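Practice problem: predict the structure.
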Amino acid sequence: MMNKLLELSTSEYYLDFFIDDSSSMNTVDSVDLLGVKCSRWHEVQVRLIEIMEVLQFVPVSGIRIQFINRPNIINLSHRAMTPEAFYAEATKQIRSAMGTPAKGATYMRAKLDNILREAMGRRTPTAVYIAFDGETSDQIEDLLTSPSKRNAKKIPVTFLSCTGHDDAVEWAKDLEDKT
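Answer:
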């Protein structure tokens, strides 16, 4: 994951993070940085904050974090901010948006379709990161493999698995390798 983020420093990418906030993300089967068991929801929050720690030094054209069920959309920019101020603001907004437990279903297709459509219309390339636990209530493979829905060179997609069950996300890793 970090290698993919560092590759972005050679170009002005827009970053779109799509976060699973369904009820299954409350399952406690992950481990935090200190080795303590935690929920998938906590794991994704910690990982986002870690990513922002790196991104404070990576020039990107913009960052958006959105959720499957929550109306919250976090828009971040480096403009007129020191790296430290960017990181502090990003951390504050992530903690605020993710301050309540995850709830809802994992219907990600419609929102992911919108993300890809917006990305296809952007001049700059868009890197899409999907953080989830492998459980989805609808099919997304055709969105990611159809050239009419996504130009894989302009819109790379990376899955961030947030679960203690690697087998639950194996299909997503296979899909990522295919596209």
